[in-house]
Design a protein that fits this description.
Largest sheet: none
Helix content: over 70%
Oligomer: single chain
Order of helices and strands: HHHHHH
Number of helices: 6
Structural class: mainly alpha
Radius of gyration: 17 Å
Amino acid sequence: MNELANLHRKHENLDSSLQYYKKSLLCMKRRHKNKYLENYETAKIIINIATVCYLQMNLPDSLKYHYHALEVLQRVMTKQELAQDQILSANGLDTEGQVNLTGELQDTYAEKGKVHMSTANLFRLMGEEDQARAQYRAALDSFELINDCNVYK
């Protein structure tokens, strides 16, 4: 479903693309039940919906979906951090006070940073400079955390 939506978006058939993305989201909900909001793929689908809304110049809906994607990404990160800490602890490594980002977790932080950037750009288009600056700062925080973890390995 998601691939079909991507194809429609590529050919600028945005209404059909949006319908297929929403169907794809519904499939995720059916497949994963209550845990679909803790799934990275769910966040990606919501980001795609936000992008189509932006392309249709429906900025309020695009913003709404970007915020929803951030909520899902936060849940995914919490789940990934817990799993990572359990693995490190099981191997006798002390993780207290440390930030360690494995590949999957780095990808999620990077995606979160990109969504913050998109949200900031939306706020700029809407003339909300203070909101835009806050979102740019949040994006930078995500990217700096990734960089810091890669520098000190």
